[in-house]
Design a protein that fits this description.
With 180 residues, the chain is mainly alpha-helical. Helices cover 75% and strands 0% of the residues. It has 9 helices and no strands. Helix 1 crosses helix 2. The longest helix has 22 residues. The protein starts with a helix and ends in a 6-residue tail after the last helix. About 10% of the residues have low confidence.
Length: 180
Amino acid sequence: MEKLDDFALVAKVVMFHDRKSFDLLVRKYQASIRSFFLRQTVGDKQLSDDLAQDTFIKAYTHLVGFKGKANFSTWLYRIAYNVWYDYVRSHKITQDIDSPIVVHKQAQASSDGLKLDLISALKILSDKERTCITLQLMDGMSIEKIVEITGLASGTVKSHLSRGKMKLASYLKQNGYERK
């Protein structure tokens, strides 16, 4: 039913330029898209909001390209992923994980509680590991959905998930969190 509702709203926007229908789609998905970016930016709210806004602008301008082959949410996450990928590529910081700035930030955050430890832990992941981890563990998406969103091969997604989970477990264990 959700797919039909989204498809009907998309059809209204494309055929009748109904901005109210697009507004309904934005309201429905803005929290999840903002959350996606908040995790990718490891807590930068302003940047997350800017990237979410870019995502919805691109979705609106390319809505005619939505063919209904996948759920609207998958199509929208794919746009969000591309917005993130473009941002990372254009703002690539070539800083080694062992550099003094990163080590200092990790040490500082580890004293501020579990939430900051998780944010710090996400910082040690590569961009693709972080994307795969957050889409699966925080958004509850299947490997197949992650493949659709990222365009990565299934085996590659599984590798990023495996490596990312190992890095997270190691980081959290080193910072005093034990598995129970």
